[in-house]
Amino acid sequence: MTANEKAKAKFEQATGAAAAAAGRAVGNESLTAKGRAQQMKGDARQAKENTKDIGKH
Questions:
Q1: Residue 43 has pLDDT above 60, yes or no
Q2: Fewest C-beta atoms under 10 Å: which of 5, 15, 40, 56?
Q3: How far apart are CA 17 and CA 31, in angstroms?
Q4: Do 7 and 42 meet the contact criterion of CB atoms below 8 Å apart?
Q5: CB proximity list for 10: less than 8 A, separation 6 or greater
Q6: Distance (Å, rounded) from C-alpha 44 to C-alpha 57?
Q7: Position 57 pLDDT exceeds 70
Q8: Half-sphere exposure of 50 toward its Cβ, with a 13 Å CA cutoff?
Q9: What is the spatial distance between Cα 20 and Cα 56, in angstroms, rounded to a whole number?
Q10: pTM, whole model, 2 decimals?
Q11: Distance between CA atoms of 52 and 4, rounded to whole angstroms?
Q12: Which residues contact 36 (CB under 8 A, 6 or more apart)?
């Protein structure tokens, strides 16, 4: 996994988790859903990069 892609994945996961938590705290389902979606996008990016790494070995 390239460092840049790894950083993007971690950033998306962290900001998504924060947004989802903030949405739950204030009772905003839309913000919670957007946060979860962003977190899943980061998870997908990380999985894609992990798959690339496995292919290189």
A1: yes
A2: 56
A3: 11
A4: no
A5: 42, 46
A6: 21
A7: no
A8: 7
A9: 35
A10: 0.83
A11: 14
A12: 16, 20
> In angstroms, what CA-CA distances link 37 with 11, 16, 31, 52?
13, 7, 10, 23
How far, in Å, are 19, 24, 26, 30, 56 from residue 45 at the CA level? 18, 25, 29, 23, 17
How does pLDDT run across 5-38, given as a tens digit for each residue?
889 999 999 999 999 999 999 999 999 999 999 9
Q: Specify the residue for token string 């971690």.
A: 10
Nearest-angstrom CA–CA distance, 20 and 27: 10
Query: What interhelical angle do 3-26 and 29-56 show, nearest 10?
Result: 160
Token pair 């389902």 in the structure block, residue: 29
